[in-house]
Amino acid sequence: MSAQVEQLALLLRMAQRRLRERLDGLTDAEYLWEPVDGCWNVRPRASALGDRPEGGGEWRFDHSDDQPAPAPFTTIAWRLMHLTDCIGAYHLFLWTDQQEPPDNWLEVAPAADAGIALWDHHATAFLDALAGEDDASLARPVRIPWWPAEVPRWQVVANVVAEATHHGAEIGVIRDLYLRRQLPPG
Questions:
Q1: Is 131 helix (H, G, I), strand (E, B) or coil?
Q2: I need a labelling partner for 105 at 20 to 30 A (CA). Which of 71, 79, 88, 93 fits?
């Protein structure tokens, strides 16, 4: 494994490990908790929000092509499904012949255990594929449809690292807020 691949894999493994530590003991109530009105979440297909909810099966995560301003606050479930969708889609672009993921390819998980298992599966597959790379293969260009230009494959991997770090930290903060929320007297 080249030094560049090793560094990117190390950063992603660190982000994955930290996220998994923060997800330990996650309940369905926390997973779906909406701390403010208008949250984006995972929902049954018929009640999903936005003009283009994402995911397959009976559940979707709220999404809109035109991002509302200000952006909606998103739940742990939404963030974990978004992150799983991200790592899974980029895996398809980098290590398969698919130029775009199939519509609604991700089976959205409505429960915490299933969401965590789905994240683990896709993160592990991404890391396993990355382990087979070298500097030359990561330097090859790739075109991601929603990116403005062709980029070297290592930039896509670096973006996955940034997403895992960013959303993992957010999930940790939401768990902290959930554990310290003000419950009604009662």
A1: helix
A2: 71
